[in-house]
Write a structure and sequence with these properties.
Layout lengths: L4 H4 L2 H11 L5 H10 L2 E5 L6 H6 L2 E5 L10 H6 L6 H12 L7 E5 L3 H13 L5 E4 L10 H20 L5 H27 L6 H9 L6 H16 L9 E6 L8 H9 L2 E6 L18 H11 L14 H11 L4 E7 L3 H17 L3 E6 L7 H15 L2
Parallel strand pairs: 1-2, 1-3, 3-4, 5-6, 5-7, 7-8
Length: 390
C-alpha cells in the first residue's frame, strides 16, 4: 500500500488498495506513522471532526468493522448477540490487536451501542487508549454551540497530550481548508454519480469515497481530482435501468456484493447514505477568529437530516421526499443493518412520507458478513420491473 496515486498505478487502484487494507490490518497506517513520525486516531462512524486530529499531528482513520473478514469469537463472548455487526467486528479487531496501530480510539453517542462500545473496549482492553466525544442531544438548545465547542477543546487537549502538540488555531484553519476541499470533491463525485450513474459502477464509487476516511487528506485530494477528470472522459452509455436512492446504510456498511446486485438487478444507485459522514458537514466557514467555534457551529446549525443526530427543527419526512425528487430517483430501497435501531426508527418515519408522496420503496436487511443475496435479488428485480412497466 502506498500513498501516491502515481505509484499505485491509478487513483482507482489506490482507492481499492486503501479500502482493502482497512478491513483487518491497517499496514498503510503503520507505514505512514513510520515515515512521518505522526500519530493515528481510529474513530467509530458516523461523524468525527477530522480537522482537530489533523491539526494535532494525527492521521484520522474511520473504523468500519471487518466486513465479514474475521471470526467474532471474542466479540461473541463480550457482547450481546442482538447488537449490530459493525460494533461486534470492531471490538473483535481491537481484541486481536488489529487496531494497535492507533494511538487512540474515539467513540461517540451516535447510538446506545456505540456509546457502550467505548466502555466495553476500555474495560476489556485497559492498555488501549480510548476517548469519548459526546455530541449535543438537542442541537436547537441555546447552549448546544458552547457545549460542543467545549467538547472539541476537551478532545483536542486529550489528543494533544498524546501527540505532544498544542492546538494552534492557524494549523486548525489550514486543516479546515483542506477538509473543506475534500468534502467539496466528495460531493462533486456524488453529484456525478447522481447525474450520470452509468459512468461509475457503485463498487468503484464506493472505494473512491471510502478511501477518504483512510488516506492522508492531501494525497486523497490529489487522487480524487485525477479520478474525477478521468471519469468524466468515459464514453459509457446509459442502460434501461430505474434510478433509486438507498437508505439506512449510514453506519454499518452493506456488503458490496449486495450493492452490486442492486445495480445488476436493474437499478442505478443515484444516492445512498453510506459514508455520508465524510461529506455531510459541508463547508466550515473560515471568516471568524475562533476556528473551533466555527467547526462546532457548522455541526450544530447543519440543516441536513442525519439519522444518528437529533435536530427537532428538521422535518425528516419533507427532507427525504425532497432528497429523492432532487436526485431524480424513481424509488427508494431501504437497506438496514440487522439490530440497527436508528435505521429502523427512520424507516418508520420515511416510509410514511413515501406512502403519502406515492414514491415506491422496498426494504431489505443485511449484516456486514452477508454473502448470499438471491432472495433480495428477486425482490429488487420485481421492484424495478414494477416501476419500469407501470
Amino acid at each position: 500500500m502506498v500513498f501516491s496515486a502515481a505509484d499505485a498505478g491509478s487513483p482507482t487502484e489506490l482507492f481499492e488498495a486503501a479500502v482493502e487494507d482497512s478491513y483487518t490490518r491497517f499496514d498503510s497506517v503503520e507505514r505512514w506513522k513510520a515515515a512521518t513520525g505522526g500519530r493515528a486516531v481510529g474513530y467509530f462512524p458516523v461523524y468525527f471532526p477530522e480537522e482537530l486530529a489533523y491539526a494535532l499531528g494525527f492521521l484520522p482513520v474511520r473504523i468500519f468493522g471487518a466486513s465479514g473478514r474475521v471470526r467474532l469469537d471474542q466479540a461473541t463472548s463480550h457482547t450481546q448477540s442482538f447488537i449490530c455487526s459493525i460494533a461486534r467486528s470492531a471490538f473483535q479487531l481491537a481484541s486481536e490487536g488489529a487496531l494497535d496501530v492507533f494511538d487512540v480510539l474515539v467513540f461517540s453517542n451516535i447510538c446506545d451501542v456505540a456509546r457502550n462500545l467505548s466502555g466495553i473496549t476500555k474495560r476489556n482492553l485497559p492498555a488501549k487508549g480510548i476517548a469519548y466525544l459526546h455530541y449535543p442531544v438537542n442541537n436547537t438548545s441555546p447552549r448546544a454551540l458552547e457545549y460542543l465547542r467545549e467538547e472539541y477543546v476537551r478532545l483536542a487537549r486529550h489528543l494533544g497530550e498524546l501527540s505532544g502538540h498544542d492546538l494552534e488555531l492557524d494549523r486548525l484553519r489550514k486543516a479546515i481548508a483542506l477538509y473543506n476541499e475534500k468534502r467539496d470533491l466528495v460531493r462533486k463525485l456524488a453529484m456525478l454519480k447522481q447525474e450520470r450513474p452509468w459512468l461509475i459502477p457503485y463498487t468503484e464509487f464506493y472505494a473512491a469515497t471510502r478511501a477518504g476516511g483512510i488516506l492522508p487528506v492531501e494525497d486523497y485530494i490529489d487522487a480524487l481530482e485525477d479520478y474525477l477528470r478521468a471519469v468524466q472522459d468515459r464514453k459509457a452509455k446509459p442502460m434501461d435501468k430505474i434510478r433509486v436512492v438507498v437508505l439506512g446504510n449510514f453506519c454499518e456498511q452493506a456488503p458490496l456484493g449486495l450493492m452490486k446486485m442492486i445495480e445488476d438487478a436493474g437499478c442505478y444507485i443515484v444516492g445512498d447514505e453510506a459514508l455520508m459522514g465524510l461529506s455531510w458537514l459541508g463547508q466550515v466557514p473560515l471568516d471568524g477568529d475562533d476556528a473551533v467555534r466555527s467547526l462546532a457551529r457548522t455541526y450544530v446549525d447543519n440543516p441536513t437530516a442525519l439519522t444518528v443526530r437529533f435536530h427537532p427543527a428538521i422535518d425528516k419526512q419533507a427532507y427525504i421526499v425532497d432528497q429523492i425528487r432532487e436526485a431524480g430517483a424513481q424509488g427508494a430501497i431501504f437497506c438496514t443493518p440487522k439490530f440497527c435501531e436508528p435505521a429502523l426508527y427512520d424507516y418508520v418515519i420515511y416510509k410514511s412520507a413515501l406512502d403519502k408522496a406515492k414514491i415506491p420503496y422496498m426494504h431489505a436487511e443485511y449484516e456486514e458478513s452477508g454473502s448470499s443475496f438471491e432472495s433480495v435479488r428477486t425482490m429488487v428485480e420485481t421492484f424495478a420491473e414494477s416501476i419500469l412497466f407501470d
